[in-house]
Specification:
Layout: H1 2-12, H2 19-27, H3 32-39, E1 44-49, E2 55-61, E3 66-67, E4 70-72, H4 81-95, E5 100-105, H5 110-114, E6 119-128, E7 131-141
Parallel strand pairs: 3-5
Antiparallel strand pairs: 1-2, 2-4, 5-7, 6-7
Helix pairs in contact: 1-2
Bound molecules: coenzyme A.
Coenzyme A binds near residues 9, 13, 78 and 79.
């Protein structure tokens, strides 16, 4: 999953972000140890697997409705993997009684989430290691 994160940022994220931005996004995200820590902190995680049972994408959900990570291997991109992961996440979040999902969405994820009735609450301009980079606060009522 750490490798998928890296590839998704380097290949798919690079469609929407400059090389310096891709580098800080990749380098300030979870590496292998960070992925263990984050995904082992009690949040729920769903993975999508291909016909060989290899993981091709994943999404997580924190207890308050926050989606922290949504990453799909570029080799499996554009084929509805994220849509399938979000279908499952939304169904289980609603069943668990959550009323709202929220996420800081990349430029790349924004159209995917708009299509699913997430609302864009505004662009967030950040600086990571002195590099300007942005994302969008987005939310969806369940
Ligand atoms: C964002 C990401 C997870 C999407 O994964 P994906 O599996 O390729 O997305 P899907 O194929 O499920 O696309 C879902 C829907 O969004 C649409 N979509 C995807 N990209 C789009 C774009 N740039 N513009 C408009 N619509 C788009 C698809 O057509 C699809 O619609 P459909 O279900 O009606 O066909 C993937 O591109 C990724 O890993 N990006 C890099 C990392 C990233 O940005 N993560 C999010 C951090 S918040």
């Amino acid at each position: 999953m750490a490798a998928i994160y890296r590839r998704a940022v380097e290949v798919t994220g690079a469609r929407d972000y400059a090389p310096a931005q891709v580098a800080v996004w990749r380098d300030h995200g979870p590496d292998l140890a960070g992925m263990w820590r984050r995904l082992g902190d009690g949040r729920r995680t769903w993975v999508a697997v291909n016909e060989d049972d290899a993981v091709v994408g994943f999404v997580d959900l924190e207890a308050d409705g926050h989606i922290d990570l949504l990453y799909v291997d570029p080799a499996a991109g554009g084929r509805g993997v994220a849509a399938a992961l979000l279908d499952r996440l939304e169904a289980e979040a609603a069943a668990a009684g959550l009323k709202r999902l929220y996420v800081e969405a990349s430029e790349t994820a924004r159209p995917v989430l708009l299509k699913r009735s997430f609302v864009d609450l505004g662009r967030r301009d950040l600086r990571v290691a002195d590099t300007p980079i942005h994302n969008y606060a987005m939310a969806k009522s369940l």
